[in-house]
Structures are given as structure tokens and as C-alpha cells.
Records
---
Amino acid sequence: MAAPSCRNVKLSKEQKKLLRKQVKAQHILLKHDGIATVSGPTKHLVVANGGLGNGVSRQQLVEVLQQFGTVETLLMLPNKPHAFATYGTIQEAREAYNALNGRDLKTDGNTQPITLYLNFVEEVFSEDVPPLSLPPGLLVIEEVISPEYEKRLLAFIDGSTDTTKENAQRSLKHRRVKHYGYEFRYDNNNVDKDKPLPGGLPEICDDILEQSMEKGYIKFKPDQLTINQYEPGQGIPPHIDTHSPFEDGIICLSLGAETVMDFKHPTGCSVAVMLPRRSLLVMTGESRYLWSHGITPRKFDVVPASEMQKTGTISGDISNLTLNKRGTRTSFTFRKVRMTPCDCAYPDVCDSQISCKCRDPPPSVPSSDDDASKLEHKYVHNVYDEIAGHFSSTRHSPWPKVIEFLEALPDGAFVADVGCGNGKYLGVNKELFMVGCDRSKNLADICRERKFEVFICDGLLVPLRSGICDACISIAVVHHFSTEGRRLSAIKEIVRLLRPGGKGLIYVWAMEQEHNKVKSKYLMERKGKPIQSQKKCTEMPTADECSNINQDTNKMDLACFNQLADVSKDTIDKQNSAKLPVHTNRTSFDSQDLLVPWHLKDGVKRHNKVSPLPPTGSKELAVFHRYYHVFSDGELENLCRSISSIRIVQSYYDQGNWCVIIEKC
Ligand code: MN
Ligand code: ZN
């Protein structure tokens, strides 16, 4: 017999409405979560609206579902509005489906009843959520104090409200707060280190502090206490406790009720940590300095259903999660005020170290000769002295066209290499008499070790008699002068050294890193290599993230994020003014005047301390910025043409460089 067609089935108005809603639920499941429902029946059901994210607790759903048989598994995911149930038999699942579809459910988490819609699925969605571990340096110690001590601490804070109403509990938007030892100022997210509050820390805290010192949870005895009281539904926005006011080692006692604290790594990895009543949270190292922490304002937390697993991270086991109603939680947070700037290993989020960077703003394009000279001193001379060893180790192969020029010179010619670097051209043609000079003492020393004739001098003032050279080379030097006048002077100085008929070869870096559709070696070397420059910027919170945080009127300890917001704003300003941009290595140039990062390899010895170390972490690479003016097509030629005593023999492009061979008339 043929199946009855839809026309023959009389559906009531109610049934039609239910069917419509059920189909809608199917669409939402598919669209948002990729869950494909089937016409069934199977043992597995997806219960739309029956999830933790919809305010339904595990207990409530189990009660309803068990009326129709044995629920073998019930999967409830954090924040999802649906749940998955697997019955022992298809028959049980079918009965639940028939009875519960469209059924209203009154829940603790909602004022209005919610309506359940059920659909069959082929199998239960059980993506393995990897078990999360606590952030490094984080500890949660359970039952650290007795219920009796807890009672005394809570009585203490309640009592203090009544007696000292004036300077006692102030109400921040989301919670009540009180300070001891030092006042925490929310306007600048810092403490007044010169103005300790009278009375110090309350005596009642001695026991827990002594215990924490004794057990080695913290190294420094705290001298600042913040007491917070959170009603259900209140929270604290994610933040890192500002580095500069407090030492490493922050401890926090949870009293009255448990809560869930969310920890987040800057890369986005997030870990929810259960803080049971009477437990102590210990934040040291990475968890104190790098991870942000916060409490989401809500009335229910997603927690493990079994009592056994109350502490630690809330994660993987989605067959064992439920909702937990929050109570009033009082936290005692103890910190030690720091008297010296923070020197942690996380400079990107360190207000002590970020402010160092602010005192040393990136340079601008120089407007005077004096500025230019200072810029070159700091961003060329000092940098090459610092990186000399590492730089030299990367510069072994002489460029073929330069070798060709040197090979073509007559035996016995006197040749100067102005800006000779590690001397890689000084030994190319043994029949020449070559001398090298460089502004960097450390590079000159490397040449000397290689038994080359070399001296230290500035390219604008070479201490050689005029007209003494049969030939001169200047390879990758003129682009380090920061005004056009100085670049011209540098070329004129080479011309001065040449005898009439003497030849000069000049190489400068080209703005155009693609010539006749061929990408330069510089761009090609990018292949497979990570781009390191500006990587840090992307790890910082974006300006958007910062403003989101700042929109919250509850600004506790947000100094770090505020600082970062300032930095990002600053970066935007720089792009609009004449500040020199920092180039991203192995990419094409967007500006002719720029800073090119040099990443000093870990383990490579830096030369003497000519300039202070750039602010980077101990394990990170040190990054140095070198000033460059990259030449556009025709620019080098034009400079040379403006010198009347020479003629251009040849002008060409070679491996990302503009090159000229000149001859003195
Ligand atoms: Mn905090
Ligand atoms: Zn720090």
C-alpha cells in the first residue's frame, strides 16, 4: 500500500505550527552547528533549546528524558543551546520524540518556560575537546581554610562596612570593593607607593598569609589587600593585573561561593578555571604576567556535573557538564607592592617595559644635516657595530657583477672599497692593491683578522689623497645616508678619490624589487621563511579589543591594555606624519625611507655594548633597525649626472639593486 500523501493527513492548526517550528530548529542546527538531522527513527536525539547555553541544567533535562527510558549518554556543551541524548533503544527515543516535541520546560535559568524541539540524528556529535591544562604558574588549592575561618573572614568584612562607612566599601558598577595596605586607584590603575593606608593589612589575615609563605606559594609577604564582593550576575572584565605596581605572586581567596574564572592567553587560547569556595588561587609567572583573567557576568556557570571534579579546568568531558547557580562570592586578593620597575619576560604586556619604548620614539625623516647625522649614528653605525659578527656570517658570497668589475681592472691598480663591510671584495682579485674602509669598528676588525688593509672612516670624509685611486667600489653603502645632499656628497667623495680616467662602481638598494617581471633574490628568499618583523604588533590586542575593554566602566587593573591602546593609536599617528616606517622583511617596499629590522640570532654574541639592548625578552631575538633610503628607478643615475666631472659608463639593475659604473673625466 502506498504511503499516505500529505494531503490525506489532517493536521490540526497546533500540529502545523509545531511542524513549522521543528523544521526551523532543524535549519538552525544545520546552519549554526553543522548538525544534520535525519527523518529517523534512531537511538539518538538532538534536543534544540535543551542546552546549557539556553539555561537548562543537566539535572532538569535528565529528569524529563528519563520518563521514556534509559538515557545512555547526554552530551551538553558549554554555551550551546542544544543537547544530545542517546537512548538504549530506538523505541525509547521514538517515544521521547513523540512526547517531548514542542513541550514547554520551566527552568531555573529562565523566567519564561522554554520549548523543546527534538530531531533524530544518525550519530551523536562528540568532537573530542582536548583536555586543557592550567596556565603555567597557576595553582588552585582546595579547602585551604576551614569553614570556621571562612565565617570569621566574612563576618570581618560585613562588620567593617557598618563601622567605617566613610572610606569603607565603595561600590564599583559591578561589585563592592575595599582596599587595605595601599589604595588601588582605578583612575590610573596603580597604587600610590608613597601613601600606604594607615593600619596595614587586617590581623585576621595573618594565618592565611603565613601559611602561603610557609608552603612556598608566594615569595614576598603581601602588603596590599583588595576585597571584592560579587553578587550573582556580576563579574570583572578580562585584565592582567598591572605589572609595575605589584610583584610576581598574587593570591586570591574565594569565600562564600564558588565561581568560574576565565584565563586567556594572548593567542586566544582560553581556559575556564573553577574556584571552589574556601580555595586559594595562586598566580605566578606566566599566568600572572601574560594571561588575562576575568569573571563573566552571569548567574549560572557551566561546571562538571560530578562532585569529584569540582576544581581545575572545565573542559573536555562534555558528557559531564551542567549549570551551577552562582551565590555571593567574596574574594580576598593579596599582592605585594613592587618598588622597582617590572623586568618580566613579557615586554609586550608589561607597562614598565612599554613605557621604555615610549621614551624612545621611532625617528622621523631628518630635516637637517645634524638630524641626519644623529639618525645615521644610531640607526646605521651603532647597529652595524652591534650586529657585525652575525652580519658578517651572512655575507660570504661576492656578487658576480662586482667580481667582473674587479677582474677587469689592470694588475697593480690601486682600488678603494668605501664601506667594505666584512671585506668580502678585498680579496677577490689578488693582482690589485686594495684598501677597505668602513664606519663600523667591529666590521673593520673582522677585515683586519682576515689580513686585509683596512681603516675606519666616514664615507663622507675618506682620509685618502684626491685622485689617488685607479678605481673605487661602494657596494650597498650610499643608501644608508639619510638626505639627498648626503647621498650626493658620498658619491662626490668617491669621485674625489678617483684619478682622471679612474672608474667607480656604485650599488644601492632598489625600491623596485621586481624588474622585468623577475622578483629579486631578496623577495624570493621569503619563501618558507616566517616574516618576523611586526609580528609583535599582531599579538597585541587590537585597538578594537582595547576599546571594548575600556567601554566597561569597571576599569580595574586595565593599565596594561590601556597602554597598549595608546601604543596602537601612536602607531597610526606615525603613519600620518613623517615617522619612518618599519619594513616587513622580504616584502616589497612601500616607502623610500624606512627602517629595516635585523633579527640577531639567539646565541650569536653581540659585539660591545654600544647602544642599549632593544627591549626584548630574554629568549627572544634581539631586533635592530637599520635606516635605508631605497633608490627608485633613475634616481642614482640622476645624482651622478649632477656631478660634472664624471660620465656614466653603464647603468643597470642587478639583484634588487640600482648600479652605475662611472668614469672620472
Ligand atoms: Mn586581577
Ligand atoms: Zn612586566
Note: DSSP finds 16 helices and 34 strands in the chain.
---
Amino acid sequence: MADASPISHPFLNGKPKQLFIGGKHVDAHGGTFDCITPGTGEVIAEVACGDAVDIDRAVSAARTAFEGEWSQWSPYDRQVLMLRIADAMDEHFADLGRLESIDMGAPVARTGMFKRWIQQTFRYYAAQAVNIRGEVLENSFPGKFMTYTKRAPLGVVGGIIPWNGPMISQLWSICPTLASGCTLVLKPALEAPLSALRMAEIMAEAGVPAGVINVVPGAGPTAGAALAEHMDVDRIAFTGSTATGRKIIEASARNFKTVAVELGGKSPDIVFADADLDRAAVGAAMACFNNTGQICYAGSRLFVERSIYAEFVEKVAAVGRQLRIGNPLDPGTQLGPLASAAQFERVQRYFDLARSEGLDIRSGGQPAPGLGGGYFVEPTVLAVEDPNSRLVREEIFGPVLCAIPFDSEADVIGHANSTEYGLGGAVWSRDISKAHRVAAALRCGIAWVNCYGVTDPSTGFNGTKHSGYGVKGGPWHINDYLTSKTVWVDLNS
Ligand code: NAI
Ligand code: MG
């Protein structure tokens, strides 16, 4: 279809996309790279590729902005700015959502839902901007002294985000940065840099001062590492793989940066025989297949009570078979391609592993046929008896669901927790006591009962164990962007 051509997007006007530093579009010292659309594998834009020199320029612009006029903005000024940005995002959303679909492959049916999420997030954090407060503390020091705490913005923040949903994941550093009065250097992944570059333009037009939000796409080992190590960056907010998260934490030691790392997962989804099985089957399928399996909290380990195992696994496989895979720009598409050639190859290696281990492939297990050069794969359900199989333990980051039978509540809790990860987890049951017991027993940062993947900016989102630390969202998040100082005042004279 003609209107589905990725080339027809207004942002993809044939001009190279530059870095956004100090309020200006600038060329990268690091050169350029080819930005690819995963629906066809075609090059859609030439994009500036930041390196360590570019990161240094961006950090310096962010520091200058932090110390400049921005530091005089009142909380109310920042709130008004954020509400103006929310309006601007709303106005430009149709193009922004399509750009994200073109760049990383999620269907417009999915990216379209983020219109409301973007509004909610900017508006929620706008309210936080005017709620920053210190405390007056009583003390018993002889004589009369008053003590109070004073909050101040932390400084320059580095945001390092992955490619599986950059339009949304960047909000977790942009919004607390603006609400607190910090400044930001955002480094999107080479696989999907476009929504971050476009959002920075929209924010600048809405009145964000030069240097407050800077965007430098670049490779992880060069630009990413330079940001994580930088001596003038006060905090890193990272989302990505567990292996890279460890490097971020190590790099932070150089200048004692604070860090939040939201990492990988292999989240358990537990279905008891007494659940509403039709609802649970759709919930369990989409817990893993949504965004073509490229979600950190994907419910990729499905534990099913043995008495309903065969019947339930077939229901889930049937949901997978019915999903419409196709062009991300077609409004009827439910599953787009994987985001990159590397991810496509990675998922196929797991298909090969499933075959070589002789696993029972109930549906999928192949690249999706008939869709040309794009990185499409079939939603896949594997029936796995051994909870220690590599497919059950490793994060695949594709639409590959392992269904494992269990015999008792105690057994399933043991299996569910026997992983290094601890991000999400869910339980489906009509027995309310059992549901609460299991939700409490799961070692994870976010647990769902009779639903999966429900989130909201006003609630917290975090991992445990090797899924990382640092709560995003909720009333506490902004505190990570503020320092606290205790002030003593001698009232005796
Ligand atoms: P990655 O964690 O290496 O990349 C995420 C971000 O970190 C990107 O912006 C990248 O440029 C940056 N980065 C990479 N190396 C860095 C370094 N040394 N210092 C600073 N920044 C660095 O993940 P990648 O390689 O894109 O994907 C590999 C696998 O990781 C996926 O197949 C998936 O299993 C997992 N992953 C998990 C995510 C999640 O949200 N749980 C998100 C992305 C990937
Ligand atoms: Mg791309």
C-alpha cells in the first residue's frame, strides 16, 4: 500500500538526521550510520553516530544549561513547560507514533496506544514538579538550633535506552529531569534512534531551553560507555540487558554516579486450574507475544497446573496462530517484525536450539513466511517438561513462550523463583487467598493477579535480583533526581 511506504514520513525527508546538542542540530564527530526499518530491512535515513567526543560536547552543553538560566526556573515554570510539552506531543502524536513503528517495527495499533501514556506521564511528572519539599527536623543539640532539609536538582543525567520501545522508555529519564530541574544527555540505541530525535525537537519548540535535553544516538561500546564513564555526569538511568547493566554500574564507580538499571527478565506467568481459562489464555499469550516478545517483563515462562496443561497450552498456541503478523503501518497488524537483523538471528538460534534439544514445538518455531525481507517470526509455543532447559532460563527477547507443567503451589513458587532474574510475574486463579499468597511469594518487582503487563506512571516499576534496581514511576522516582542537604541554623544569638 502506497501510504504505508516508510519513505513517505515527513521526518524522513532525505536529509541526514543530526545530533541534538545545546538546542541545535549538529553533525557528529563519529560520522553517520544507516537507520533501518525492520519491516523490510531497507535503509530509511542516514543518522549521525555520536562517539566519545560528541558525548563530551553534549555533557558540556548539559552542564552549561544546568548552571544557567534553567536553574532559576521556579517549580511552577517547569510544570507549565511540561504541560505545554504534553499538548505539543498530542498535536504531533500521529507522526511520532508512525515514526516509532517505522523505526522499530511495533504495529501502529500498539504505538497508537502510547498517545495516552505520553500525556499521562508528562502530566503526572508536571504535578511532581510543584511537590518537591524538604522537612524541618527537631533536634536536641544543647541551645536552640533549627535543622531543615533542602532538596536541589542532582545535575547532569545520562539516559541510555534500548530499541524495543524508545518512545516510551525515554520518558523515564526526560520527565523526572524536567520536573526536578536537572539536564539530560539521552543516548538512544542505533537500532531505533528516531523517536528520541523527533521528541527533542518537539520539546524544544514547546520551550525547553537549549542544552536541557540533548540527544546523541551512538553505539554502546563508544558513545554509551563514554556517557557511563563521564566524570561530569551525576546519574545514569539505564534500560537494557543485564550484561550491559553490570558495565554501567562498574563505570559509575569512577565518579560515584547514582544509577538505576532496569535489566532483563524471564518472568513467570502461573495459571492454576481454577482460573478463568479463556481470559488467562489470551492474557498468557499476549504476556509473551506483545511487541513481538521484545518487552523486558514479557511473561516468557508459562507455568500451567498439570490437570489443565494439555488443554490450556493448546488454547494459548491457538491465540498465537491467529495473530495477524504484518506491515507495522497496517492498522490491522497485531504483530510486527523483530526490531533488527541481529535480533532476528538471535531468535532463530533459539528456534534451532529448541529443535536440537528435541522440544515439543506446539506452534510457530519459524520465520514468518511470505513477508519479504522483514524480520518477521512466528509466535511460538514450546511445551517443556524440564524447567532448567536453556530456553526456559535465558532471555530470548522474541515471541517464544515456554509452557511448563506444575503439580503444586509450593513447586511452582520454587520453579518461578529459580532464576537469576526478578522483574515481573503473574498468577491466574479464582481463589483469592491463593492468588495473594503466590503474588507475595514471587521474587519480582511487579506482580499481576488475573492480568498481565498493566502499568501506569503513577505506580512504581522496578526489578529485583539481576533484573536491576531503581524504581521508575510513582511518587518516589523524582527523589532520585534530587539531592538532599541538611541545614543547621543557630538561633541562640
Ligand atoms: P544492550 O543492553 O547492550 O543495549 C541497550 C543500550 O545500551 C543501547 O543504547 C546500547 O547502545 C547501550 N550499550 C551497549 N553497550 C554499552 C556499554 N558498554 N556502555 C554503555 N551503554 C551501552 O542490549 P542489545 O545488545 O541491544 O540487546 C541484546 C539483548 O539484550 C537482547 O536480545 C535482549 O535479550 C536484551 N535486552 C533487554 C532489554 C530489556 O528491556 N530487558 C532491552 C534491550 C535488550
Ligand atoms: Mg530501525
Note: The radius of gyration is 24 Å.
